[in-house]
Design brief:
α6 crosses α7 and α8 runs antiparallel to α9. Helices cover 39% and strands 18% of the residues. It contains ten helices and seven strands.
Length: 258
C-alpha cells in the first residue's frame, strides 16, 4: 500500500489530518508559534516520527532537519517532503538519545521542536541539555508531551509504564512544575506553558483507534472532526476537563555566562 497516497492527492495537509486528531491539534498549536520566515532560520525536529511537522516547518521557510532512528519513517518522510514540494529539508538517521554525538549540530539551530517524544526517554534531563546545546543563543524550544493529569483514552495509558526504552512511555507525562524543573536544570527560560487536545479530540481519537481497518475509522469519524474546533475550548473552561498534551515554549538566553 502506498503510505503517501493521501499526500499525493491532498498535499501537505494530509500529513496532519490522515491520523488521529491529536496530531492536527499539535500542528495547529505549533503553527501559531512558528512564524513564516524568509531569513533562512534553521530548525531541528527531535524525534520527528513520519516528518509531518518538519515538512510543515520547511514550508514555512525554515531550513529543517528531522531526526529519527527509524529508517522506514525517514524514507517515508523524505518522499512526502518531495511530494509536498518542501525545500531545504532533510531526514538523517539519528537516535536522539545520542544527539550529543552530532558535533556539527552544536549551536546551529534557531528553533528546536520536540513533540510527544521526551516521555519515551529515560534520561530526560540529558535530552533537554542536548537540545539546549544544538540551539543558538536566543533560540527557542517548542515542545509537547502528555499532560500528567490527562484522563486516559485507553487502559494502557494508566500504566504500567516501561522501565526501559522499548517504544512505550517510560513515564505518564509532565506537569507544569516538572517542565519548569527540567528547564531550570538545563538552562532554558520558560516563555509559555499551555495545552492542546481537549475532550472531543480525545473522544473522537479513541473511536478512530478502535475501528479497523484504520481507513474505515478515518472515513467514519471524518464528520466528527468539527466538534473539537467548536466545543473543546468551551468545555475546558466550563468543566476543567484536562487537555491530553501539555505544551511549552522555552528560550535559550542570549547572554548566559557573560
Amino acid at each position: 500500500m502506498d503510505k503517501s497516497l493521501l499526500v499525493r492527492i491532498f498535499g501537505f495537509r494530509a500529513t496532519v489530518i490522515h491520523g488521529d486528531l491529536l496530531v492536527l491539534d499539535r500542528w495547529l498549536w505549533l503553527k501559531k508559534r512558528l512564524p513564516v520566515t524568509r531569513n533562512g532560520e534553521k530548525l531541528i525536529d527531535v524525534g520527528c516520527g513520519s516528518g509531518a511537522f518538519t515538512i510543515g516547518a520547511a514550508l514555512r521557510g525554515y531550513q529543517a532537519v528531522g531526526l529519527s532512528w527509524d529508517l522506514r519513517n525517514q524514507q517515508i518522510a523524505t518522499e512526502r517532503a518531495e511530494i509536498s514540494n518542501a525545500k531545504n529539508v532533510s531526514f538523517p538517521i539519528q537516535d536522539v538519545r545520542r544527539l550529543h554525538e552530532r558535533a556539527e549540530f552544536a549551536g546551529k539551530f534557531d528553533v528546536a521542536i520536540c513533540f510527544e517524544n521526551i516521555e519515551h526517554i529515560i534520561d530526560d534531563r540529558k535530552l533537554m541539555k542536548d537540545i539546549h546545546a544544538v540551539l543558538k543563543p536566543g533560540g527557542f524550544l517548542l515542545m509537547t508531551t502528555p499532560n500528567y493529569f490527562y484522563r486516559a483514552m485507553s487502559p494502557g495509558e494508566n500504566g504500567p509504564f516501561s522501565r526501559e526504552e522499548d517504544g512505550w512511555h517510560v513515564r505518564r507525562g509532565y506537569s507544569a512544575s516538572m517542565l519548569s524543573e527540567l528547564c531550570a536544570e538545563t538552562g532554558f527560560m520558560i516563555d509559555e506553558i499551555s495545552s492542546c487536545s481537549g475532550f472531543f479530540s480525545q473522544r473522537v481519537t479513541t473511536l478512530l483507534r478502535a475501528i479497523r481497518p484504520s481507513s474505515l475509522g478515518w472515513a467514519l469519524t471524518l464528520p466528527l472532526r468539527i466538534l473539537p474546533v467548536i466545543f473543546d475550548r468551551i468545555l475546558h473552561k466550563l468543566t476543567g476537563w484536562p487537555d491530553y498534551s501539555i505544551c511549552m515554549v522555552a528560550y535559550k538566553p542570549r547572554f548566559a555566562g557573560e
